[in-house]
Amino acid sequence: MKRGTLIALGAFAVLLVLVLATREPQVSVGVRKLELPKLDKAQVTALELTGARSATLRKEGEGWTVADPGKPDVKYPADDSQVSAVLDALSQVKNPDFVTERAEKLAEYELDDAKGLKLKVLQGSAPAVELVLGKAARNGGVYVRKAGSNEVFAQPGWLDGAVRKDVKGWRKRRLVTLELDKVSQLILRSKEGESVTLKAGANSDEWSLAEGTPTPEGFRFSASVAQQLAQQLTGLYAQDFLEGEAAADAATGLGEAHDTLEAQLEDGKKVVLHLGRQPDSKDGASPVAARVDGDPQVYQLSPYVASQLRKRLVDFRDLGLFRFEPQKVTKLKLQAGGKPVVVTKEGETWKLTEPAKLPAGFEFDASQVDLQLAWLRGLRATRVVEGAVTEGQAGLASPAALVEVTVQGEPVQTLKLGREVPGAASGTKDLYARTTLDGLTYAVGDGVRARLAQGVDLFKRRTPPPGLAGAGQLQGLESLPPDVRKQLESQLRTIQ
Hints:
Blueprint: H1 3-22, E1 46-51, E2 55-60, E3 63-67, E4 75-77, H2 80-91, E5 97-100, E6 117-123, E7 126-136, E8 142-146, E9 152-155, H3 159-163, H4 167-170, E10 183-189, E11 195-199, E12 208-209, H5 223-234, E13 240-242, H6 249-252, E14 259-265, E15 270-275, E16 288-292, E17 298-301, H7 303-309, E18 329-335, E19 341-346, E20 349-354, H8 367-377, E21 383-384, H9 391-394, E22 401-407, E23 413-420, E24 430-435, E25 442-445, H10 446-452, H11 482-495
Antiparallel strand pairs: 1-2, 1-6, 2-3, 3-4, 5-9, 6-7, 7-8, 8-9, 10-11, 10-14, 11-12, 13-17, 14-15, 15-16, 16-17, 18-19, 18-22, 19-20, 21-25, 22-23, 23-24, 24-25
């Protein structure tokens, strides 16, 4: 290389080092910035939306209310979390991308007076934060400008989604504010006059019926159903709201005999939820009216949610078919249309003891035993079959499927599946079933028999799905040089 070229390159390198050493961390000359007043969440007293959406939110006491600016005297409780989300989103408005300052472009970005969404945040004596929000920006956010300015910026994030709501969108939809662990009992009163009281225990699985509650013969109470009910109540949200004539007692059914759910708290307070008419089968999609004592608002619940709150005593029946601790099981026998399959625990290891002759290529996987035990432990009947049914009528003398679970120090638990139960819902098939937990006859979905019919294959080692690494291998090693791949596989084997 020529001497002159080397000198020139050296001089350029020196100049580059000087520039890098003396430049500012961020060049700000000529860069357009969106300058907003400092936002203090603790001092915010109101949010005013005008233009594309209209709503006025004001802090009153510890909570927020929302009203239509045209009807300021008609206020509704607002969802505090939504207000907090707006303020959090505003705090993230920092150095958005500058787009343009041409006033004639405001309409294109929907930031003009005709289409812009104006947001004003009042914070006591401090300056208000005022922004105009336009259409969605290409960066996944929204185009914004400061009120009174034509400078357009593209702000990423969730600000637009947090703000762009009408009055109904801001309203509080949570019906009750309860802490689950503070509920001491639930009282369900049906429109037919039935009353059921559930007592909370120290733990979630210790719910019980109030002492003296009359129950059908063979009834087993399900604490988990009671816990689910308490969880549904404490996390209950409305689908919508009813106003005017639609909210009248005559229209909702709340003026006649109706179902109620009362939660009593440890401090003696109580919350009572009233449920209106449940839609008939012809109109199963219609919402259900609901009201809470002390709250004048009438809410709408989906039919499904309302049905989950309308419990009767029979709904708290434990339909579980087994009751055991998996770690105490020492033997499991399954049979459905073929030879019995038996697995036995020897020490801490499961062994497949029947059938003696296994299919060609079969490889037993002891971990599958734990999976099948977990499935059986969670197995539930669909319902109790009413009326007297003999073993012969149910087909249980020669069962279509049989399960025996041997538990250390306890009697063997048995489940038998028999013939099809008549009267199942369209498209379903139930089988008669009996368990040694009680003397009742149950209906169980035919899918249980179909699963048991897999026999020994229930305990077969599964082939890893394509693309997943096998034992002792790492995915993608095939793309490495052979010597490198060998070294990695060797290291992997040493740490297994």
